[in-house]
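FIELD: query
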Amino acid sequence: MDKILSASFLKAPKYKEGAAFVFSKEFESDKPIKSATLQISSLGVYVAYLNGQRVGDFILAPGWTVYEKRLQYQTYDVTDLIKDGKNIITAEVGRGWRFHKRPQHATKHIKADEPALIASLCLTYNDGSEAIINTDSTWKSSESKTVYNDMYGGETYDDNFVSEEKSAVAFPHPKEILIPQEGEKVAEKERLKPQRLITTPECDTVIDFGQNLTGYVEFKAKGNKNDELVITHFEVLDKNGNVYTENLRKAKQQVRYICSGEEKLYKPSFTFYGFRFIKLEGFKDVNPDDFTAIAVYSDMKRIGHFESSDPLLNRLYENIIWGQRGNFLDVPTDCPQRDERLGWTGDAQVFIRVASMNYDVSTFFRKWLNDMAAEQGEDGRITHVIPATFDGGGSAAWGDAATICPWQLYLSYGNKEDLEHNFPMMKKWVDYIRKSAAHKSLIQCFKGSRNPYLWNTGKHFGDWLALDIEGDDEDARGATDHDYIATAFFAYSTELLIKAGEVLGKDMSEYKALHENIVKAYREEYVNPDGTIKINTQTACVLALKFGLTPDREATANQLVSLIRKYGHLTTGFVGTPYLLHVLTDIGEVELAYDLLLRKEYPSWLYPVTQGATTMWERWNGQRPDGSFATPGMNSFNHYAYGAVGDWLYSTAAGITMRDGTVAYEDLIFKPQTDKRLTFVKASIETARGTVASEWRRETDKTVYSFTVPAGSKAEAVLEGKTYKLNEGVNTITL
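FIELD: result
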């Protein structure tokens, strides 16, 4: 049995809202030691020390889970930190995700109880005996110098503060929820130095780190006793070059440091910020060398790379990478800066394919999907965010993360056990839709919408932030009929469930019949006699083609192309955009796909790049050509969803694909699509079998192709209508 299960949860004898607390225990080690292991967790987030040395490098431990059902603990080898004789173990505990206050939502996760600690230190001596130091009422507690901390409100550190030490209080709390660490640890990664020191037109002192990131700033805190230093983190300057923080909503994004008169190096411990810029207040004689921005995100292994001859396209790819880094912080957050930072399901499902090409996300998503299963309602409904922080769920394309994410993980990594583990959740979600679709209101019945295979019930987010609806509405759900989208995803999730079931050897005849009925109902309701789609939007056509719903692909394809040419640009939102270029490629409109990809004018993927963006924007019009901003209530400048285009860069521009029915790059088809505006494209993915790589390069009147096939994989290349068998290793073809 894990030793931590014999320990008690501890809290301070008196709670002061917003404060962090320090728990400590002195102990003796009087014999030669063989090993020492610390198991530790907290209600809140903790930083542990042994004899003044930090234990491990996990940031914001124990991470974010469905705390009522799943609380991770970490296990550390601390042998080298134990001394002969007197030792002291301490742990500072802050509020973390468990206690944050989101002004716009009530949350079941905000608790009345205060931050708490549980830990067990096991000393194993050379003679085989053990000593166990468990958290109990013999431990001491005190208030931390971090006198205030909040995930959205930031931190205040008072270097003058001294707290009275008192006995900690042991209290009963369920321990069956404790689970070993599942996800990747959150770690400090890149360290960035200032690129510019700016005095704004409004006379604010600002540092520009040159890159929008998620993390915090390490700085030299120096000043006279009781001097207050304030750092405000933000993403962009306004069109006049001044500080812009309106898009943070009610998040403070601040660090406050009260000086003791002694210079110290300081960084926050209990929160993170989304920023490129910081505003400094109270600092004298600012030296940029005193500041370092530290990127913080889940410690995933980088496996993918992409490069082309177009510098703007390369910057777009880097923005996708930084968007993933900044938002894969224990959970796949929508954004890291405003009073949100939540695991939105819709964002995750549209991005998971490229996410799995950029980084090894198998462990990351395995943990998050376990939380999704824990949050799934008895009726099968999936909440909008995982872990859930507010009531609501069951939206098409968002809840469908329950089928899309497990299936994509299986395709990327080939782990059938993961698919088996997630299959019950997938099935419950499809069954939820089936029941929801069948349960019609009286109004719907009067309107004649009684078909049980049309999902025209419930509330949905639609084609979020699409450009085909008038106005600049915070609730911009797009012009594509929400019931149409819902029915399309009903069909798609059912199809994925069938595929998963067949892999697992299950009888899927019931769901095959269901899928046939959904497609039939869809066609009766939404397809015109001439084969076009009644919902005349780009997204409607894209979904019809991508999900195989249209009975006349040519008519629907022509409709889509006509709509794109009518506007001269894309108008799709979160639902349609991830599939847009893939669909255009599938219908033979590769040049048009490249037209959209390489377009520099608003709206497009490259428009933010031309505006200096270093991450993906939430909205196409985050900052308009005239320099004004979109509505601040919904305008993040680090929001990875539109970065889903990255999988087209890998799979179409570079041409790295897998044969249908295969997984984990076991059977490769290289099918790069070239464009005259590019002179080279190259990409690589480090798989379990080895490196998969593709490159094409124009040389005078020839194109040279190079394909790398890992050992144990089969492969072929399809070039200019011809198929070439490839061998293991590097294959070069000149045409």
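FIELD: remark
The two ends are 64 Å apart (CA to CA).
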